[in-house]
Write a structure and sequence with these properties.
The chain contains 13 helices and 17 strands. With 416 residues, the protein is α/β, with parallel strands linked by helices. The strands form four sheets. The chain has an eight-stranded parallel barrel with strand order 2-3-4-5-6-8-13-14. Strands 7-9-12-11-10 form a five-stranded mixed β-sheet. It has a two-stranded antiparallel sheet with strand order 1-17. Bound molecules: beta-D-glucopyranose.
Length: 416
Amino acid sequence: MYAQSENKKLKFPKGFLWGTAISAYQVEGNNTHADWWKWEQKGKIKIKSGNACDYYRRFKSDHDFLQELGCNTFRLSVEWARVEPEEGKFSKKELAHYREVLLDLKKRDIKIQLTLWWWTSPIWFSEKYGFHKKKSVEVFARYAQKVVDELGDLIDIYQTFNEPMVPLGQGYLSGQFPPGIRNPWKLLKAANNIAKAHKRVYEIIKNKYPEVEVGISYLYNWYESENLGFLIAIVNRVSKWFRVDLIDGKIGENLDFIGVQYYRLGKIKYDWGNMGKLDAKNQIYYGFTIEEDKNNLMKWISYPEGIYRVLTEIKKNRNTPIYITENGVPTDVGLNDQERIVFIKEHLKYMHKAISEGVDVRGYNHWSLLDNFEWLYGYTPRFGLVEIDFSTMERKPRKSFYEYAKICKNNELDLN
Ligand code: BGC
């Protein structure tokens, strides 16, 4: 099917999907009906999203970049708060807008991966329900049904929820994301309801479009420790239970693939001084802290081999097809992003190794196409293959853009 030839050109399987990813709230700008917007206005975080990348108005020229890259897929999301700004009242205007966005991708022959929930909800939903309330399942399903009815003819692949346990952890434990609650009991209820909502939405989509693929994405980093000894195995188990199994275990067979989001190595240490402290932004989890790479803007330690370890571990536990739905590195402003080039090539090398050993990986989406609004961190960490000057909105492809384009166009990684 594919081969690793002598001169270090790694071929990927025929039909492999190469893409990039963005999320509505992080790029569109002015999502005024979303709970995150309200959270920002309340001063809960330092930097407001504002116009973000103005993708809402500039999507066509941004899609030109996808063609230039030679991508055959694109992962994006719809903003629930735009589609349903008031409970039960769907906006024809916004649905028509999303139709235009998706049609523009279709015209370019780009396979659409659509995520229905990417960390933000309408204000009315957060105030009246929240995922910890039972009724949230049917309320979310009603929104999903609308999207499927209005846009479903254009969608190739769905992810119902994006990395749900990250915003739940921040929203229900550390309180740094909306709804800003600190209540483990409500967190468990919310996780349970998200699993139920996924199952319901899976059926909704499959009833109408049986051939379409439906999955969910989880955060899979690789965790190790220097000072925890055998305890690291337990810590790993608990961490994976939280990030993946808590929801995945309840979803059962109701998915066609798993979306893997892999970023880094978590080198865990225990620090007695922080025993009672939970501060996700500074990576402190009740005394467990994660070692930092001071040269990285999010302090993340890059560990390309981890993607291989994660992929082979998934294969051991279940035989589900996999898409890498996100993988990327935060860098500083500047077009000469050698660090990103190395990051991409090294991770793809290890992804290829996993594929060559039989792991069914069907696509890779780099995070991200554009520099964008990085939640609690505002606009400082830059994740884009394309740099944005946020004062003028001018876009410029970085060096890595051209390197990634070669890979996408040739379906091959040239390590010579
Ligand atoms: C999220 C993105 C985020 C990225 C980098 C992912 O887990 O899905 O929204 O920007 O990580 O932090």
